[in-house]
Amino acid sequence: MRFPSKEIVEQVRKKYPVGTRVELEVMNDPQAPPAGTWGTVYAVDDTGSLCVHWDNGSGLNVVYGEDSVRKLEVTTVCYGEKREWSSRRDAEEYFLMGIMNSDGSEQQRYAKIYAELQSLFRLCTDEEDH
Questions:
Q1: Residue 87: which of 100, 102, 98, 76 has the closest Cα?
Q2: Rounded to whole angstroms, what are the CA distances from 121 to 17, 32, 97, 118?
């Protein structure tokens, strides 16, 4: 296997900064977590591999050019229910529909989350102290 150039490693680091949430698509390792497992990037090593703390406790790296993940772009919390969205657009559409189909305090909750989505927050919540 050839290692990626320094430029490519830097691109990977920019695409997956520390704290990025990812979902495993493919990992070519018999000890791999199952596809669909979520995790948090804690580093990108000098070979371009993602160092991930998987939610199931696994610590296997995502090897550049071999394995595949996708970013989980945004998290919302509404009425205490946490939800990970792979598409910010899907989350915006959901909360916009909530605004249009509700009123009063419920509508205000949806509107607060929608405004945070529009402001590109990674964590959007209906909690007042956020």
A1: 76
A2: 15, 31, 19, 8
> Which residues, including other chains, have CB under 8 Å from residue 95's CB and lie 6 or more apart?
76, 78, 110, 111, 113, 114, 117
3-state secondary structure of 79: coil
Contacts of 111 (CB under 8 A, 6+ apart): 95, 99
* Whole-angstrom distance, CA of residue 127 vs CA of residue 130: 6
The pair of structure tokens assigned to 33 is 């977590």
Burial class from Cβ neighbours inside 10 Å (0-12, 13-18, 19+) for residue 70 reads exposed
Q: Give the pLDDT confidence of 24-57 residue by residue, as tens digits.
A: 999 999 999 999 999 999 999 999 999 999 999 9
